[in-house]
Amino acid sequence: MIRKWMITGTGLISMALMLCACAPSGWAAPQEKPAYTMAEYNAYNAAAGEKNPEQRVKLLDDFVAKFPSSTLLPFAYRVYYKTYDELKSYPKTIQYADKLLALGDKLDAGAKLEALYIRTLAFNNSFNEKAPDAKEQATRARQTALEGLQVLGQVPKPEGVTDAQFEENKKVPTVLFNYTAGYAALQLKDYKGAIDSFKAALAGDPTGAVTYFRLGVAYLQMDPPQYMDGFWALARSVALKGPGEAQVRAYLRNQLLRYQQAACEKLLDAQMNELITLAAGSAERPDTYKIPSAADLQKAREETTNFISDLRAGGEKAKLVWLATCGLEFPEVAGKVIEVNAADPVVLKVYNGATPEEIEAATTPNMEVKIEGQPEAKRIQKDDPVQFSATLVGYDPDPFMLHWEKAKVNREFIPEEKSQPGSKRPGRRPPTKKPGR
Known about the structure:
Elements (H helix, E strand, L loop, with lengths): L14 H6 L17 H12 L3 H14 L6 H14 L3 H12 L7 H18 L7 H19 L10 H25 L3 H14 L4 H12 L6 H13 L5 H16 L4 H17 L12 H10 L3 H7 L1 H11 L3 E13 L5 E5 L4 H6 L5 E5 L13 E13 L2 E10 L28
Helix pairs in contact: 2-3, 3-4, 4-5, 5-6, 6-7, 6-8, 7-8, 8-9, 8-10, 9-10, 10-11, 11-12, 11-13, 12-13, 14-16, 15-16
């Protein structure tokens, strides 16, 4: 979904130099008695000094072809990887950074750190999860990132630099190495390792929207998934408005939908918006914050004997019951008609109660019923008993009102066409079957 690392640009390869406050000794100028010929030196110097990057690569190729064993090769490798980075040819950048890193202990900490840093940047800018060798790339990138953290701890503090300045200079490479170790671990399905590395990266950069996204993915792919932590991390990423915000928002919504399987998607959107608002104010999820799962909703449906009473009571129970019932189709909902709107579609205002006596005494409705495809329902009269099937789509807590759509009235409760207005069918009492059962 999001492949690019947030920090890019050739200027950042000087981070190692910033840490050392000088060029690494591995790049010292040639000595007075060099172990190379003047022809080697001139060929290397011509390549390194070339302003055009494409021409510079050609000159470097000529230099290596003519002097394959030159002691200036480490310098040439550095010019190579900086040039390919400038050209955004990241696989080549990685290739020549690896050639230099292969020299191992022949490099000092500053030279090694710079090569590790630019290689890590190049990996983040070029990695394709679908590449045939993606696993090998990720394995090597993780090793490189972890080595970068180790070398970073070995770089001595330059003279004249305060401890605070030195630690500040180390923040960017520390974040990059930790993020990359996490991203590579994610590709290798080491979700625990990925989470640890992402958290370490966020300790240095708490505004890392991409890192929060990756952290959320890692939580959700654990076995078992850590849903609440995963949702919070994704919501935090959205709240920080990083690159790919719309994609992350869509991914979060899809994950919430799979987790909860609520029938009313508008309630899902409301929960998601609340989650994003809360995550914007805190990097840490409160232990008390929960989102009901599909199992929680099913349990609420099974344990509810009269969801109308539960909704009337309000509180957390009402929220859970509403999540469990909104969007469901109910058969044989019963009540007394309080008002009839005979337009198209026909809308009935109905009262539903716990007992026939309560229904008979009612004068105000607590349900609005939109009838679909039954124009004959306009023959229903005020105070008539009614029974219908419908989808529950909304409710108002105060004044209390349930909203039903796609309703179909049981034909037994629709008067014959010749019935006179205001007539009553003798002997019928309001049905007492309650919705939700």
